[in-house]
Structures are given as C-alpha cells and as structure tokens.
Amino acid sequence: MKCTYPLLLVFCSLFIARQVSADEPTLRVLAWPGYADNDLVDVFEKRYKVTVEVTLVGSDEVLRSKLTENRGADFDVIAANTAEIHNYAGQGLLQPLHLERITNTARQLPRFRDYSKIPDIVVDGKVYAIPYAWSDMGLIYDRKQFNQPPDSITSMWDPKFQGRVLAFNTSNHNFSLASLVLGGDPFRINAADFAQVTDKLIALRRNVLTFYSQPEEAAELFRTHSVALIYANYGRQQLRQLRDAGVDVGYVVPREGALAWLDCWAISRGARDPVLASLWINYMLEPQVSHALNERQDLSNTVQEPKDASPSSRLIWLRPVEDDQRRAELWQRIISGERPPLSAQP
After folding, report:
1. Which of 186, 234, 275, 288 is the most buried (most CB within 10 A)?
2. Which CATH number fits domain 6-134+261-305: 3.10.350.10, 3.40.120.10, 3.30.450.40, 3.40.190.10?
C-alpha cells in the first residue's frame, strides 16, 4: 500500500502496524501458574519477534480437557507432569522432540538428562518431553494449631480439624492419596478395592472445609477461615506464597511418603511451528529463567540442586493410573455429595 496524501499518513501507519502484527508468529503456551511470568515472556517475544499467548490451568483434568478438545491443535507447547505426558504421547497428542534444537539440555543436572531413567517421557524409543520443574506434595500446617508437626497423611481425616482442612480438587491425586493411606498402590487400585478407597474419600469430603483449585485460592482460605492443614498440591510453591504473606506455617513430608510431580515441556501434535516451540523449551532452560522458578515460586528446577530437597526415598513420583476416567467420574460424584454405588462403579 502506498500513501500519497499527508492526511492519510496516520491511517497508513495504522494499517502497516496491524499488518505487521498479523504477520507476527504466535506461540500458544498451555502451562501452570508461575511457569510463564510476563517479564520472562516479554524477553522471549522481543528476542524472537513473536507473540506468546499463555493459557494457565489449575488441574490435570483441566489441562487434559483443553489439550484433547481439538486433538492438540489449540496449543503449541505444554507443561505437564510425566504421567500425563505418557498418556498424551500414547494418544498421539504430542510429537517427538528434536533434541538438537534444545541445546540447553546440556545445562541440566545429569539425572534429568538420563531420559531412560525418567518414567514416561520416552515412548517407543522417542523422547516426548524435557524435564523443567519438580516438587513433592507435602502438608502445610498452621504452627499455632499444632504442638508438633503432623507426621501422617491421616491428619487430613482427623475429626478434631473438621472444617479446617483444605484438599486439592483433583481425581487422580486424591484417589492415590486415599489408596496410600489404606496401604495400597497409589497408582494401581484393584477393582475390589475401589469401594473402600471411595469411602475414604467420602470421609475426607466430610472433614474438609473445601477443595481448592488454585494456590491463591488456598492462601486466601487459609487466612480467612482459620485453616489448620493444607494438602499442598503445588508443593513448596504454596509454602512460599503463604510465608510471603506473613503467615506462620510449616511444611512436612509425611511418613507414608509424598506424591511428587516432575513437570516437563512438550510440543503438541498440532503445533503450528515446532521449531518455535523448541526455542521456547530451550529458553525455559536458560539459567535466569530456571532460577526465577526457584526464586519466585520455591519450585525446584532441573539446572541447579535444590537448597532444601526432600529425602528421595520418601518421594513417590507420579505414574499413569489404572483408569483416569473411572477416577474422574467417581470423584465428581463424591464432591457433589452423591454417594457412588456400593460397588464404586461409575
């Protein structure tokens, strides 16, 4: 377009600006709170002359719903834990990575570069994800309401704390917790044991104040409802948030062990520009970005040793479960107050 009249110069400039904006590549990121802060996104956008659209999720179920809605076509790069990565790769929702495009993996700690020893990110000999952040999911407690730190997950069911317990609104983790409390495998619940595990979760629903979804929601409820105990699905990220708000809280890994997640970056099967998506993953492994994750969120990254790591023998890394759908359907009945059938069948 050529502008020949002065009065049209402004309109011409606006048209060109819009045209440039329309031609600018867009990277669509699906991630968790704290993984794509605005200032970090700004650096990436300026460096590669792109626009980044970030969509945040608060649970594995929401992430799964968004990714599967259009077979991965709505997002380019996602952050998910290893168990979810395994499922997505098996469903054809992810594409194998070209590791030569992600050179910053050389910065990672050796244990995060040995993909053969990381459950679920290698499928049929192909690498589908790069480790990024991890945390145990322990118990946060109000120091004023405990004479000594709680040492067991069973504290969440303790009737003396009824109405002062916060648990996370998720099906998979809660069934795993209940199975663990009952002495079972957290990721492989036998059909005959589902009724007992379901009853345990019904008892939990009766004991909690509510089930939260976002860490900010849990922090606000903690401050306003004299909460004694939180199951920290977001791990030490939640501990940091509460302490930054001036709340006197402690954190423990219970004696039964703590479920622990290892979140990874992966590229969707429907990614518009896999090379750009690879650049994002590579950027996430730069020291200043990974360090920001630790400094701002108190989450452990994969390029530096954590200052306060939990004993590895007490961490139970998330694995794929026996039946996602069954757990999800039963969980919806539990939180809605509808008692599932005695057989605990959906």
Report:
1. 234
2. 3.40.190.10
